[in-house]
């Protein structure tokens, strides 16, 4: 018997948005923000993909360069920025923050798109993500 793939209609940027929204809830802060260069985010998500089958289905990493890199993760971050769910602060765009609309999007749309088991796994991933960014 093979593992059932994630909900087909779910997109990588929705997985990322769900993880970030759940991580905000884990940290229980009014403004969820963290310092991370793109390479640090790539490394964190590579680690998360090793621990989560759901994350690894959406974000595949290449180790051929100096640091791990997932083009899909990079595109997902850009899409969340363009949609207004994620922001970056100047001057170096090192501080990443979740905009308030991301909470509404999670509650009104994303919760319905994932299966219960997937939401439970995403919650675990979000807890791990929150621990890693707080330690950095």
Question: Can you tell me about this structure?
Answer:
The chain is mainly alpha-helical and 136 residues long. It is built from six helices and three strands, in the order αβαααββαα. The protein has a three-stranded antiparallel beta sheet. Helix 2 (38-51) packs across helix 6 (116-135). The model has no long low-confidence stretch (mean pLDDT 90).
Topology overview:
Elements lengths: L11 H16 L5 E3 L2 H14 L1 H6 L12 H12 L3 E4 L5 E4 L1 H14 L2 H20 L1
Antiparallel strand pairs: 1-3, 2-3
Helix pairs in contact: 1-4, 1-5, 1-6, 2-6
Taking all Cα atoms into account, the compactness measure Rg is 14 Å
Strand-residue proportion: 5-15%
Can you give the helix content as a percent range?
55-70%
Strand order of the largest sheet: 1-3-2
Any low-confidence stretches, pLDDT <50, length ≥5?
A: none
Which sequence of SSEs, written as H and E, runs from N to C? HEHHHEEHH
Task: Write down the overall geometry.
Answer: globular
Largest sheet: 3 strands, antiparallel
Given helix and strand content, the structural type is mainly alpha
- Overall pLDDT confidence: 90
The oligomeric status of these chains comes to single chain
Tally of separate helices = 6
C-alpha end-to-end distance = 40 Å
- Tally the beta strands: 3
Q: Outline of this structure?
A:
By secondary structure, this protein is mainly alpha-helical. The protein has helices at 12-27, 38-51, 53-58, 71-82, 100-113, 116-135; strands at 33-35, 86-89, 95-98. Helix 1 packs across helix 5 (100-113).
């Amino acid at each position: 018997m093979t593992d059932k793939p994630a909900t087909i209609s779910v997109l990588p940027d929705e997985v990322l948005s769900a993880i970030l929204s759940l991580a905000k809830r884990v940290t229980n802060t009014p403004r969820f923000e963290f310092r991370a260069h793109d390479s640090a985010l790539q490394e964190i998500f590579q680690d998360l993909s090793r621990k989560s089958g759901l994350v690894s289905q959406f974000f595949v990493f290449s180790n051929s360069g100096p640091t791990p890199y997932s083009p899909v993760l990079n595109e997902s971050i850009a899409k969340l920025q363009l949609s207004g769910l994620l922001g970056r602060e100047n001057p170096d765009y090192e501080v990443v923050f979740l905009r308030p609309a991301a909470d509404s999007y999670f509650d009104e749309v994303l919760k319905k798109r994932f299966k219960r088991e997937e939401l439970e796994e995403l919650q675990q991933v979000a807890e791990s993500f929150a621990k890693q960014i707080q330690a950095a």
